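Hi Q.,

Before the meeting this afternoon, I wanted you to have the NAP prediction in hand. No need to reply - just skim if you have a minute. The sequence and ligand are here:
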Amino acid sequence: MPDPVFLITGASSGIGAATARHAAEAGYRLVLAARSRDRLTDLAKELGGDKRALAVECDVTEWEQQEAMVKEALDHFGRLDVAFANAGFGGTRGFLSDTPEHWRAMVLTNVYGAALTIRATIPALKETRGHLLLTGSVAGRRSMPGSLYSATKWAITGMGESARQDLNDTGVRVTVIEPGMVDTPFFDQRPSAALEPDDVARAIVFAISQPAHVDVNEILIRPTAQTG
Ligand SMILES: NC(=O)c1ccc[n+]([C@@H]2O[C@H](COP(=O)([O-])OP(=O)(O)OC[C@H]3O[C@@H](n4cnc5c(N)ncnc54)[C@H](OP(=O)(O)O)[C@@H]3O)[C@@H](O)[C@H]2O)c1
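Predicted structure with the ligand bound:
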């Protein structure tokens, strides 16, 4: 059997890039998607070049670009085994903070973009009895004061369970990974005592490495020092 193929949105940075490195070590071929082509190209080279990793420029808020991303992945590698809807970003707490334009972009990326990734990848995942991964958050398990970002991650918690039920009996597994604070460019100022992106990547590799009859539905993972 050829090496399995793992597609990641938001692969140019943070959790997505770390997951790509860990998945490559575990023997996966990679499809790396985000808007920053240069960073994706550098990562694809680091992971072994064309035969092992494909860089695809994709804005997840655009359906045509997500369709094209999956087509390019299938044309290049011939299969898709894992799809990781991970692209996203945050905002300032407080319903009087940020601009309505920022809110629109955040909701479209974190919620609509994730739904489009599910829609674009389901047919190929059914073919391989593959695995769908979504990045939720601790912020999608508890409400954060004045946080529309938290509401977008509650949407991911719900979307993961909806997808799991929708895909029941197809052999496709669904995992929502729900990190606490992770030290990535998500934050303007580096957080202290946070998880490293590698910590989240290891949890993801654990979920996808289980036998076919085991579906790890959610992984809630905090740094030991996080109270909320
Ligand atoms: N860091 C944390 O504490 C934390 C905790 C819980 C959950 N999360 C979630 O983890 C996920 C990854 O975040 P991170 O912490 O790794 O932050 P990050 O390093 O800033 O990575 C965010 C990724 O999303 C991509 N992205 C943003 N908008 C996009 C769009 N419209 N289309 C395609 N790609 C887009 C970015 O790439 P481009 O800019 O190149 O497009 C980047 O690769 C997000 O969903 C975030 O909400 C983070």
